[in-house]
Design brief:
49% helix; 17% strand; 4-stranded antiparallel beta sheet; alpha/beta; globular; 6-stranded mixed beta sheet
């Protein structure tokens, strides 16, 4: 069975999507539609901007979404998924690519998500850190012992978990993890504590927009971040998407479930190769490739 997977924030690079825009008429029309919907030429920033331009959450999220979705929509018969999933922001790309949400509505939701998250980040000093070489249980145990907000936010692969919370708590946690024998406890250069309780104001703001969007059943099951289960019911998909901002991304659990359900091939659609690396290192029998 073939899975198509979609990357999240952090995979962006200057020049992303430019070849596609120049060589494919359908892609060009979709990119121009996005410029119109967003009210600024995001393509100028994607193709010829600076790394600093692309790092702004309000630019990064729509840019990664656009690159992934336009690629999927212009693949024609080559895009035939038996299952899809997306890492954090990538879940929105997966939903649009799989036909559960119209392109323009998906883009508007991603824009609303980016702006709401930016606002939540500015409300309190917060950050994230990657913990390498500890089990999920060890990470959860140490996070629970820290004063302040400190939670497991991304279960990326066995032995690689990202934690999220207020800056002081994450700093304390990193020292505690090193003492406990973690190979690395590495603070990340991010704008805030994504997938933690500190994103509650953003979740509440985004919930209203998600409720009003026209979701339909996708062409194949989507394995969602909050529970790592396959879903096709639009009501369940919406509810899980609303929970996503304050809940952890269960990526390693999604991969395990997809493999158990028969995944033999995984194709990453969008910028970068992060997901290919996470899948390929853990599941040697799965054929991994990318479309970017």
């Amino acid at each position: 069975m073939k899975a198509f997977v979609f990357p999240g924030q952090g995979a962006q690079f200057v020049g992303m999507g430019k070849d596609l825009y120049e060589s494919n008429e359908q892609a060009r029309a979709l990119f121009e539609k996005a410029n119109e919907v967003l009210g600024f030429r995001i393509t100028d920033l994607m193709f010829d901007g600076t790394e600093e331009d692309l790092k702004q959450t309000k630019v990064t999220q729509p840019a990664v979404f656009l690159h992934s979705v336009v690629l999927a929509l212009t693949m024609g018969d080559d895009f035939k998924p038996d299952m899809v999933a997306g890492h954090s922001l990538g879940e929105f790309s997966a939903l649009v690519a799989a036909g559960a949400l119209p392109f323009e509505q998906g883009l508007k939701l991603v824009e609303a998500r980016a702006l709401a998250m930016q606002k939540a980040c500015e409300a309190a000093p917060s950050t994230m850190a990657a913990i390498i070489g500890m089990t999920d249980e060890q990470v959860e145990e140490i996070c629970a012992s820290i004063e302040g907000v400190c939670v497991a936010a991304n279960y990326n692969s066995p032995g690689q978990v990202v934690i999220s919370g207020d800056s002081a708590a994450i700093e304390t946690a990193c020292a505690r993890f090193k003492e406990a024998g973690a190979k690395r406890a590495l603070p990340l250069k991010v704008g805030g504590a994504f997938h933690s309780p500190l994103m509650e104001p953003a979740r509440a703001e985004l919930a209203a927009a998600i409720e009003q969007a026209d979701f339909t059943s996708p062409r194949c099951p989507i394995y969602q971040d909050v529970d790592a289960e396959p879903h096709t019911d639009p009501v369940e998909i919406k509810a899980n998407l609303i929970k996503q901002l304050t809940a952890p991304v269960r990526w390693s659990q999604i991969m395990a479930r997809m493999v158990a359900d028969g995944m033999t091939e995984a194709v990453e659609v969008g910028p970068g190769k992060v997901l290919q690396g996470l899948i390929g290192r853990t599941y040697r029998d799965v054929a991994v490739s990318g479309v970017n």
